[in-house]
Amino acid sequence: MGKSVFIAEKPSVAQEFAKALHADFKRRDGFLESEQYIVTWCVGHLVTMSYPDKYDERLKRWSFDTLPFLPKEFKYEVIPAVEKQFQIVKGLLTREDVKTIYVCTDSGREGEYIYRLVERMAGVKDKEEKRVWIDSQTEEEILKGIETAKDLSEYDNLCEAAYLRAKEDYLMGINFSRVLTLKYGRNISNYLKMDRAVVSVGRVMTCVLGMVVRREREIRAFVKTPFFKVIGKTANFDAEWRVCEQSKYYNTPYLYKDNGFVDKEKAQELVTFLSDPLPAQAVIEKIERKKETKNPPLLFNLAEIQNECAKQFKISPDETLQVAQDLYEKKLTTYPRTDARVLSTAVAKEIGKNISRLKGYEPVQGYVERIMKEGLHYNIAKTQYTDDSKITDHYAIIPTGQLTELRSLNELQRSVYDLIVRRFLSIFYPAAEYQTVKLVVAVGEEKLFAGAKALKAPGFLEIAGRKQEEEKEGSNKEDNEETDSPGLLELADQLTKGQELPVNGYSLKEGSTKPPKRYTSGSMVLAMENAGQLIEDEDLRSQIKGSGIGTSATRAEILKKLFNIRYLSLNKKTQVITPTLQGEMIYDVVNCSIRQLLNPELTASWEKGLTYVAEGSITEQEYMDKLEHFVRI
What we know:
Layout: E1 3-8, H1 11-21, E2 26-28, E3 31-33, E4 37-41, E5 47-49, E6 76-78, H2 83-93, E7 98-104, H3 109-122, E8 128-131, H4 139-147, E9 150-151, H5 156-192, H6 205-221, E10 226-233, E11 238-242, E12 255-256, E13 260-261, H7 264-274, E14 280-294, H8 302-313, H9 317-329, H10 345-349, H11 351-357, H12 365-374, H13 411-426, E15 432-443, E16 446-457, H14 461-464, H15 466-475, H16 486-491, E17 500-503, E18 505-512, H17 521-529, H18 538-544, H19 555-564, E19 568-570, E20 577-579, H20 581-591, H21 600-615, H22 620-632
Parallel strand pairs: 1-4, 1-7, 7-8
Antiparallel strand pairs: 2-3, 3-4, 5-6, 8-9, 10-11, 10-18, 11-16, 12-13, 14-15, 14-17, 15-16, 19-20
Helix pairs in contact: 1-4, 2-3, 3-5, 5-20, 5-21, 5-22, 6-20, 8-9, 8-17, 9-13
């Protein structure tokens, strides 16, 4: 009987497969071997695309004469630094006594690409190749992945999408970087007093640069506009004036939105008018009491946790991804590079296992006991938190429930793990309940508005944390929302429509318009996920999510590259992103030459095209024809 080779993406993952197989492995140079199995590994990429000069020595020199560069056949080569491991892997994959190869690289487009390049360069033939697709590195999941491994050919469309993504980045990067450097490089280097300046351009990278530069210029061009609100004071609460059809200010140019004035004199004029006489008698025109509920947020995908960690811990998306990867490799959480924020139906059926194992994690022990005792998890498959149609490669990031490595975590890793656990357990708890009161009172023809909101039943906020939720609510308030009047809640049950209320006085409350917010590293990842739209509201984000710029696996790396080449600057204390002078110059160069590269919708459409190739909706050749046409023009 022939041997089986298991090839992982890195040594640590290979070690987990070896443990799960429970065989008597002997350690060799670059692999482990038992009587039945061989476990080996890549160290990330072992093979890469060759530079243009490998096609023709003349292409080493940058010249307009050799552009565009569009090879008919692409060349690949082994990365010199990992040549030794490649030769070991090649020898194992082509060994005569090897019958089956289990591909255990990361379950996604990039992991597929890593193996397929090795397979190609090693010349693998006449072997049974199977794809292991897993969501966590627990022994249970690994063995299940091996048992249910499909024929590698079932992933050929994903493989084609992976090759195309690399070809696309390669062709756009080489052609556009060379042409723009040849045309503008000397002017940029002279202005910045540099020896030489290379204009680095990329399909996703340049689009992200454009988003940051445009935002920065909007902020610079912003002119602050003051506005003035009129506040009426009763004995127990404040109420805010708002224009209505009967008001003498209705449809006048003096207004800021519908609850203020752009001119202080006009606001003071209204105060004088309403103050004659004092106390003024106001009549309750409308009172509305109701209960509102707030559901737990959807689970974390990589973009959401990167945004949350940037806010809470002031760490970059790259650092968050590393922590999430560490937690995955320690078997504490599931696969991190996911776009999904929901569970699959299959996982939802078995979710009790993940929950019950968390009893050993002391900070949430009480919540776990309640969920299990009351069976709060039984119907999770019928809720918005389970949806197979919203999952491509992997479901959301959740805890596995395995806690063996918990003590090995550093402070940051533990904090991120706690965040994931609390978000996960929150979906099994009831919605938070609020008591709200809204009041409209008439003073002559003018109207005052007051509102109040109080938490009555915390529900999931017990787990997620009330303070955090209150901060979110506060940061999302708009200028035209009612003044929050806590005293109104105490009086609510005593107030009735038609009742008179004395208004003891009026005052002006000054405010001013705010410029757009700069992107933080976290909000930029969210904006990339939503094709350039930064949508602050979480519920709205989940509804309109479409094609993104880049993928969950690449966004952090793209930002990191922009910081490293000094097109963007990152404030590590606040995680705020700003463009450098060089970055703005590159933006201007692209804007006046290849403007399409700055268009988030276009960039997202390229990504969507790769998804279509992976799904088999369009062919590799159709995509390649479109790509070559774009590069030529």
